[in-house]
Fold:
Amino acid sequence: MLQVIFTLIMLILLQAVLGFDNLLYISLESKKAPQTDQKRVRKVGILIAIALRIVLLLILVSLIKYFQKPFSFLTGEIENIIKFAFNGHSLIVLAGGGFIIYTAIKEIWYMISTKGLEFSEMTTEKGSKSSKSVIFSIVLMNLVFSFDSILAAIGLTKEIENETTAFIVMATAIVVSGLLMLLMANKISIFLSKNRMYEVLGLFILFIVGIMLVTEGGHLAHLKLFGNEIVPMSKTTFYFVIAILVIIDIVQGKYQKKLLTQK
Structure:
């Protein structure tokens, strides 16, 4: 019993840590919905994502070997140039990472190419997405982000002999972490709306998240370019880079204020 409780606590903590980048995406993406609908969009998107995570958990528990097994038609090599063995897991992670990189670059480009507009006016000017399309984006990316965390959860519960108990533990961790995400999403969105300068920082962090997913997808596909294996970015490196970006942003902000006071 103690082992089950300890595993559950570890899983909740794991889901919370791995959910940071997901929260950031939800907060930024929900801003594309009509302003009066943004809170509801975050709530509905996360609740649907929780349900689908449990469905995904059921699928992965039953079919995990098929997601890890390379596709024969996507396995091959060109000598001294490229070697690959794509599987279902790698394709999902690569697609998610590529989409996040595209989204981050598109939003950053829009920021720097828009002249004479306050950032608060930009969302209205460029046209909000419909609430349904934003919810769909949130749910879709939530599933991409949750893929690895579910696989990690399956690994952590291997020591629990009873399969039903193991599934209940994993499902409970998903629900609890999802509710925590629901609570934090609104707070992060409120913080970003009051401190709009940090949205730029958020987009660059999102860009790094995309790179992390792409490198992980390349590693899962056993991808080699010119004889060099693609190595995934570790979580330690990811959080270190984020910490450096945050420190740079804070120092730059304080220095800019100091320069303004000297004029």
Observations:
- The first strand starts at residue 75 and ends at 78.
- The first helix runs from residue 2 to 18.
- Strands lie at 75-78, 82-85, 224-225, 228-229.
- The radius of gyration is 20 Å.
